[in-house]
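Reopening this ticket.

The earlier resolution said the output was attached, but the attachment link was broken on my side. Pasting everything inline this time so it's all in one place.
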Amino acid sequence: MLADPVDQRRLLTLADLDSEIARVQHTARTLPQHAAIAELMANRQTAGDELVASDTEVEDLGAAVRKAEADLLPVRSRLERERQRIADGSVVDAKILRSLTEEVEHVQRRITELEDAELELMGQLEEATERRDKVAAAKEQIDVKLRAEVAARDEAVAALRQEGADLAATRGPIASLIPKDLGALYEKLRANTGLGAAMLRAGRCGGCQLEATIADLDAYRRAPANQVLRCVECDRILVRTPESGL
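Inline output:
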């Protein structure tokens, strides 16, 4: 392929811009915020699951405490009625009175058992509520960090996107000056290797960084200025300049 040396040198400018665009894209993909956000999202999911479990535990224990209190009400009422019957003197039969007294003692023991059970449930409820509050606070801290990381990521991505747009705007006019066949070859090589053209500097390819052999250098030296050279190692377009060492 033949191409004006000026157009060939434009490929170097294009390659530099494409390298910068690739750098910007890579930076946007590998921002540290991406990993931080992923980790925080996982932690948030775990904390959310723990919070749901804690809420359920608190609700269940709250219901158990309310049931224990409800169970106590009729027993207390029964105790009050039996005590009233003993106190008001309406029961004169000694056998019945003794039976009532024994019943009162039994009911009192039952109330003590129910109250102890209720107190145990209330203690469990208090502990579960404290755990739930700690989990909720931890989740809120994660949410705060997550919002900060997302904001930092969005700001960084916006800046990189603008930088990429500026580079693309600079690239467009330069690419339009390059002949179609040369530009097509450059784009094909760029798609395959990531870099379509490189400078031949001091006998070394700027793409693969390998030094050309004496025979290759002699071939490059004898080639017409408008001949498009290709690196024998990486196949990229080799652009000759005063720095090529030929």
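Reporter confirms the inline version is readable. The helical segments are 5-29, 32-87, 94-177, 180-193, 214-222. Residues 42 and 48 are 10 Å apart (CA to CA).
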